[in-house]
Design a protein that fits this description.
alpha/beta
């Protein structure tokens, strides 16, 4: 199977880097020339990667075309291209529905959407798919795991939840700043906190259905320090602020559906 990528950014590099580490049946990767530094780095990493000067070449020679351009550029990039009727396409373009893609290219497509995260490069990512596609599962499951959304609203909810990455590092940043205020060097603070949060993430990932609420309780001795921090966080509007932020992002994602047409 040959994968073609229109758009060569961070996520494209993460997907290809991850697949090169697996036993996938992808025999070749066709990547667009833009971004030149990333495409050159990928071509240097494997002779299975070929840089194509024209996007139409990628469309014509790929078994699956992955659309990885920015939403604001997508229509201008894709409209001039000629896709075959029923061509297999994976869209990573946020908020743009398959029906919109078909309007832009002027032909029906066999399209599914995906939300891969940067950690797929290390085979530790989770990728949401809609609709669930067997080829999509074949590609993304080895990069960590793949989760099929049952409908578009569920897919948009996954997209919204994935926007927590910056908040995750923001919590670490805030805790690091607090440790530094206590006299600890920034590098030492980071070396301490990163493994603490890694251990918690591994616990959650291996919890076999145990709810996050239960895990929080199990990690919070009654009357102890962990219980106090979360209670203070919630009492000062932390949980409400998080829900409010997710509501706002979710509304933005849904509004983007109509804006992309």
């Amino acid at each position: 199977m040959r994968l073609g990528f229109i758009g060569t950014g961070v996520i494209t590099e993460a997907i290809i880097s991850g697949l090169l580490r697996t036993e996938s049946d992808v025999t070749g990767f066709l990547v667009s020339e833009r971004n030149r530094s990333i495409s050159a780095r990928l071509a240097k990493a494997s002779d299975r990667v070929r840089i194509c000067p024209e996007n139409q070449e990628i469309v014509d020679q790929s078994d699956l075309v992955v659309l990885a351009v920015r939403p604001q550029d997508a229509k201008a990039v894709l409209s001039p291209l000629r896709f075959a009727e029923g061509q297999h396409v994976c869209s990573l373009i946020a908020t743009v529905e398959a029906e919109t893609l078909e309007e832009w290219v002027g032909t029906p497509l066999r399209a599914f959407r995906a939300i891969p995260l940067p950690s797929v490069a290390a085979l530790r990512g989770v990728t949401a798919l809609y609709p669930e596609d067997p080829v999509g599962v074949r590609i993304f499951a080895p990069l960590g795991s793949a989760v099929g959304a049952r409908n578009l609203d569920e897919f948009d909810a996954f997209a919204t939840a994935s926007s927590l990455m910056g908040t995750y590092f923001g919590v670490l940043e805030t805790a690091t700043d607090w440790l530094c205020d206590s006299g600890i060097e920034p590098e030492t603070a980071q070396k301490y906190l990163a493994p603490v949060f890694l251990g918690l993430a591994l616990t959650a990932n291996e919890a076999d259905g145990t709810s996050f609420a239960t895990l929080r309780e199990e990690h919070s001795t009654p009357g102890g320090l962990n219980e106090q921090v979360f209670a203070t966080f919630a009492a000062n509007g932390g949980t409400d602020a998080l829900r409010g932020a997710l509501d706002a992002v979710g509304a933005r994602v849904k509004a983007g559906r109509s804006d992309s047409t």
